[in-house]
Write a structure and sequence with these properties.
By secondary structure, the chain is an alpha+beta fold. About 20% of the residues lie in helices and about 25% in strands. A hairpin with a 6-residue loop joins β8 and β9. The relative contact order is 0.13.
Length: about 450
């Protein structure tokens, strides 16, 4: 009897541990994995805007951009309530934090400026203490806006003009630091004529790091903050590495799949959608190029099956992983005033790299041609745990295959790891045995 009770207890403990592990593997239940900003690059604007202004670029993961596109679509089509219910909260959004340091990231004054207040107060929010005081300087970004979370690459301007007021000098009464408090004498000159600080970047190096903040809101509860790890460190100034232009070898042919007709129209003609997979290196290069003043976009061409020539299509051109859309009105002609809904469309894409600084315009090769109902483009450039089992390419990633976060190989029947099911069955059997043993003992006691 004691052994059965012990077995029952151990089974319950194992189940609880497995459940915790599964939840932890999903970033505390967030609807996407919370990873650090990728491919952070910094480019000093050489005096434009203000003497110290720097442009930072960074990349979001494919999972993040896809989630935010789906969320925005849900807002537009009136299904946001169900969408958020499926996400497990009333609302969720992302912001960005940017930390900086001058010359030495470990310096007690001019090193990294992150403090515990960046993690937020339950009532007053990010960057505040329990009395509501702002505990960050003008150059500290504790709740920065992400321009467009649907796009792979985003950017923002940092370390901008600092007027000679509390933003420069700080406010001791509210414990709010000024930028001057975060710099050492000799690292800067304050220019009274233009009312801002100057830093000689031929003699000094400014470092930056970033992290994502996800805020989860539920009615009747305090907002919860979740933080990614810090990104790679980017820098401008004396020790910064100069960014070089790309070459054609840096531009892979786009990988596109899942062409389908949507229920949308533009100028009386339908809109199609397809899925773009953005490889890691391209996301890196796009962030680098954007920081340096250039850009990488995607061009889409289509034709009605049977036509000879492809035609440029208008639609999504900013690089982002997930579903892209393009209108088919350009396929209309005098001979075919409208593209019918049942027309078979063929589509292809290529990347275009432009950089005014180098007077460069480079194109990738065209993607393979896709059409409705075909997924002949099912190869992927990113390594992963899930593979298609293709004998010609054993490392090919299958985007539709889900990996169990516990054992990494089972198909997760009904959404749970097979080992959890085995434990549930084991516990159920143990409970049944206990009930039988107890009932038999009661019968014996009655007979006696």
């Amino acid at each position: 009897m004691k052994k059965l009770i012990a077995l029952f207890t151990v089974g319950l403990m194992l189940i609880s541990l497995c459940t915790f592990y599964s939840a932890a593997d999903k970033s505390n239940g967030l609807p996407f994995e919370l990873v650090a900003p990728k491919y952070v690059y910094a480019v000093w604007q050489e005096g434009g805007d203000s003497p110290t202004t720097t442009k930072l670029t960074y990349s979001l993961s494919n999972e993040m951009t896809t989630f935010h596109k789906n969320k925005n679509e849900a807002h537009l089509n009136g299904t946001i309530e169900q969408f958020m219910k499926d996400a497990g909260c009333d609302d969720v959004w992302m912001s960005i934090q940017v930390d900086w340091a001058l010359d030495d990231v470990n310096d007690g004054i001019s090193g990294w400026h992150y403090t515990k207040y960046w993690d937020g107060d339950p009532y007053f929010g990010l960057g505040h203490d329990s009395e509501g005081n702002s505990r960050w300087s003008e150059w500290d970004i504790v709740d920065g806006s992400i321009g467009n979370a649907e796009e792979t690459v985003n950017d923002l301007s940092v370390t901008r003009c600092v007027p000679n007021d509390d933003r420069w000098n700080g406010n001791p009464e509210t414990h709010t630091p000024g930028v001057k408090d975060q710099l050492r004498v000799g690292q800067y000159v304050y220019d009274e004529e233009i009312d801002t600080v100057r830093i000689d970047y031929t003699q000094h190096t400014m470092y930056f790091r970033m992290r994502f903040v996800v805020t989860v809101r539920n009615e009747g509860e305090q907002d919860k903050f979740y933080f990614s790890e810090w990104s790679n460190t980017a820098c401008v100034g004396k020790d910064a590495v100069k960014l070089e232009p790309l070459t054609k070898a840096d531009l892979p042919a786009p990988v596109i799949t899942g062409l389908r007709m949507t229920d949308k129209e533009f100028n009386g003609n339908p809109i199609v959608a397809f899925t773009l997979t953005v490889p890691e290196k391209l996301a890196d290069d796009a962030s680098k190029v954007e920081a340096d003043g250039g850009g990488i976009v995607i061009e889409v061409e289509g034709r009605v099956k049977g036509d000879t020539d492809f035609v440029g299509l208008q639609g999504d051109w900013i690089i982002r992983a997930g579903e892209m859309e393009c209108a088919l009105f350009a396929l209309a002609s005098e001979a075919r005033p409208n593209v019918p809904k049942d027309a078979i469309i063929e589509l292809r894409c290529r990347y275009r790299y432009d950089h005014p600084k180098y007077e460069t315009e480079i194109y990738s090769d065209w993607s393979k041609i896709i059409s409705f109902g075909t997924d002949d483009i099912n190869y992927y450039t990113d390594p992963g745990d899930d593979t298609t089992g293709d004998p010609e390419d054993p490392g090919k990633v299958d985007p539709n295959k889900k990996t169990c976060p516990i054992c990494r190989f089972c198909p997760q029947p009904l959404g749970l790891c097979i080992f959890i099911w085995l434990l549930i069955i084991l516990v159920a059997v143990a409970v049944m045995i206990i009930i039988i043993v107890v009932n038999n003992k009661k019968k014996k006691d009655k007979k006696q």
